[in-house]
Input
Amino acid sequence: RNKDDPPMFPQEIMDDLFKPKLYKVRLYCLRGVALAKMDVGITGKPESSDPYLIVKLGKHVFNDRKNYVDDATDVDFYKFIEVDAELPGTSQLQVNVMDYDNIGSDDLIGKTTIDLEDRWFDGRWQDWGKENRMTEMGDNSVVRFDTKPVEARTLYLPGKSSSQGVLIFPT
Output
């Protein structure tokens, strides 16, 4: 395109495209698998962690410390977290898996970041699951929303290149 060419879209459409809109973000965290061992036993060997979740999006923080799971490397979290978000806007949803400690500060087991704008504005992601949609209306009304695949996201720890475990989410 040449800078002298007319705009591809009218200015009203461009203004609307970049105007932030409010959305509900729903995060379902199902499981943590093969989480790194962060606790040290009396013999000095690594032992299972006591994992819990902290989820951050902008100023919103969900801290589930009170529901840590004692001595586990494979955890059924089954957590539902709902957050308000403006898109375009703050879109980096950070999920931290922490290790609860009675003494001293808790340790970061690993973290993963989900870019909400990438997902929301990606047509491929929008189209996933449409083939399963059902909206038949009648005496026995059936409604089934678009299904999304289950995603396994690797947890990383700054300064380490190896996986610290995996979180399982429906996307």
User: Anything to note?
Assistant: The CA atoms of residues 50 and 101 lie 8 Å apart. The first strand starts at residue 21 and ends at 33. Helices lie at 11-18, 116-120, 123-127. The longest helix spans residues 11-18.
